[in-house]
Amino acid sequence: MKLNKFKYSELFLNWENIPLFYNYLFLYFFQGLHSYSLGVWFYFHGLFLNAFTIFVLVLEVYLKYKQVHRNLLNKIFRSTIWSLYVILIVYQQVYQTAVNFELFIYFFNHIELLITDLIGFLYQWKLSQWFLLLLGFYWILFTTRKKILIPLSVVILFFLSYHSEMEGLDVSNPSPLSNLQSKRVKTVLSSIPEKPNIVFVILEGVSRKQLATQTSKYIDFSVLNGSHFWIPMPHTSKSLFTWMTGQPQLNQTRIKLEEYLLEGSLPIQLEKNHNYQTIMIYTQSIYFEGMEKFFPRIFQTVLDKTILEKEYGSLYSSFSWGMDDRVILAAQRKINLKTNSPLFILIGLSQTHSPYFVSTQGSDSQWISPSVRHKVSLGEEVKVLDSIISFWKENVDRETLLIIAADHGESFGEEGAHAHNYSLYNQETDVPFLFYFLKSSQIYIPKLGSSVDFKTTILSLLNSIQNQENSMQENNFFVPNYELSLFLKTWNSEIQKSLITSDKKYIYHSDRDQLFQMDHDENNRKQVFDVHLKQKVVNQIYTGIR
Length: 546
What we know:
This protein is an alpha/beta fold. The chain is about 45% helix and about 15% strand.
């Protein structure tokens, strides 16, 4: 027993014997300290990270005590554990959320899909993070070390960490957008006459601001500037569910099916009350997060990636999350356009999902930064939109209403966020939305709106004015007296919550207990220091989310 105590005390006193142990401690204790907030530090040090840290520290001391460091298998094992620990810490830093057991299990349940996002994730690593990873490998693989390297590496690491944090800090407000253009754009719509075909195209991971940079053969998308349309949670399956039901289910990470939600969904209501035929064409797979239990029960026909690949896989390429979206053009030709019933077609695109698929052979954009690749992919999607419009213009006599929207936006470093799920700022939650009547080429864009009110708005516009309920009219975002009140929450994370009203936007950062007030463009941003106002708004947000 005395020998064990002596060996362990000697082990810790001669700290150069276990430098990797102190690397683990450095990562653990300095994660989140750049914000100078204990609240942030405690938020990122949840149960999962604490448990994993204890495991790796005990393991490191045990292996050193047993003197098995020189064994090749142990070096491989220790290198793997070290890599996983660094990835865990960097994931929290890049995506600005705390990893919990549920998220960890989610990753392994969907590892075949998520592993394809690895390149985009590694692209976001900072120099200090790469240096620390390689430093750990050095301590593991080389047993003869110069003592001066230990304090020198610590100094270098502190310098790189500080420099990276200052470099990534963005406190500037976004540039204001121009006012909504009036050319051929209307913001008020009282009804949709004669039950037109409705083709609802949902882009994947495209914010309103991103689409507003594009121009197609038919639509100059800069007309979206000055409008705002929000989704309540920046996550695909949850967002699609909200578009169809009007229910955000903010406290659920998965779709929670209820019979009344199925019966009240938009496709079922269009079928029962307006005799619509309903079809879903989705270039992603519905066999993900419970979507396979939802969409086949509300649409008469569902064609997803698993079906499209079988029929058109030899003609159109696939990637982890979806397909070359030009497959939509082939699938549309199978639709019976001669029916007397109007059609409701939901078209879900996929190319702009990370890793941002580019179909052009030999395109250099395949290997450029994620933001550039996303822009190139979006340019291809605009051409797909043009082809969809051309198809319906040329082949259908009935008036057709094209609706263009997105499931969520995408972050590329704005507000310190990347990809989607964990930010409620506009780059992830403010999505494009417009009506485009194909025969008249008339465009309608609401000044404000949300996907929570989409179902109600469509049904309200299709119903006769005399039969509409007041509640339905109030939730119609095309009427002049529409009042927005929307609650938002990050997916599978408590890090941000938000409230948007007709004139303000609030974002509450749970990790640091800070409430920010801003306008809809996220200008004039200021932290709320008034204790009573802050408590009132935060209580309102928590009540609304429940």
